[in-house]
Amino acid sequence: MSTTPLYPLGHVGEIPTEVTPLSECDFLYVVDRTKDSFTFPVHRHAEFEINFVENCAGARRVVGDSIEEVGDFDLCIVGHGVEHGWEQHSCNSGYIREITIQFPVDIFGNEMLRRTQMQSVKTLLDNAAKGVAFPMSSIMKVYHLIEELLSAPSSFYQMMKLIEILHVMAIDPKGRQLSSSSEAGLPNQSVSNARLKKTQEYIAANFRNEIRLNDLAKMAGMSPSSFSRFFKLRTGRSISDYIIGIRLDVASRDLVSTRTPIADICFNSGFNNVSNFNRIFKKNKGCTPKEFREVYKRNKFLV
């Protein structure tokens, strides 16, 4: 069973960008694989992707700021650079099947998509910026079509089957948008950046006090779980690690630039007890606050 990523990853900020095998001459790329765990990280790519997974009960699907536990089967379409991925979570299956169909954003062209017969498909592709998931009743409508695409005698017939799959998905009223906004995609980061900046400014102004996840989430207009994911995707750190980092930076500056007692520095930088402060400081800096100050005094080296 393979759990190795099939494609190389580049990096944009903290979110890996998948370099898909599609060339400018390809209509689509499809891969059918089995594995015993989900190891590929949450990532993004410009291409559209239909992802079908079975034997995946308990796994967690991440699309933008949507995080949901899935059942035995999952079917989702994403596009426009939206962040997505499947995490192991509580999935205990030892035989996961995953079929991924990727196709370029210009596969049909504006002229084709503006035709009346393609309006439903155009809407589906537009909505893919937020991710669209389908329930079991809908999955059964396309399951055999995906199997037929896999067994198609040539890439031409795969392309024809892809159009049929997209049409069936597009006219299904049970398709459900996932992410609360399309801000997580590549084209537009302005709203996302504004939310992040607002919460970071709040943390910077209030790090000495207790900062509650619910308050930050409310400020960003998200649920607590969605905001936690959103924040880590944007900063590369959990909210608690981010706050601790600010408090340690403040404490470090005070240790080397003042004679303030360590206990006072502890509370002034937002920690609630000295033993906890010492433990966290040593874990992150490799020495206790007292040792940190003494090393600076000996070497006159400002860390």
Total helices: the number is 11
Along the chain, the helix and strand elements come as: EEEEEEEEEHHEHHEHHHHHHH
Indicate the mean pLDDT. Answer: 85
Structure class: alpha+beta
Please tell me how large the radius of gyration is: 24 Å
- β-strand amount: 15-25%
Sheet with the most strands: spatial strand order: 3-9-4-7-10-11
Helix fraction bin: 40-55%
Total strand segments: 11
Low-confidence stretches: 1-7, 182-190
Tell me the distance between the termini.
Answer: 47 Å
What characteristics describe this protein?
11 strands, 6-stranded antiparallel β-sheet, 11 helices, alpha+beta, 303 residues
Structure description:
The N terminus is likely disordered. The chain is built from eleven helices and eleven strands. A hairpin with a 2-residue loop joins strand 5 and strand 6. By secondary structure, it is an alpha+beta fold. The chain is elongated, with a radius of gyration of 24 Å. The strands form three sheets. It has a six-stranded antiparallel sheet, covered by helices on one side. Strands 6-5-8 form a three-stranded antiparallel sheet, with helices on one face. A two-stranded antiparallel sheet has the order 1-2.
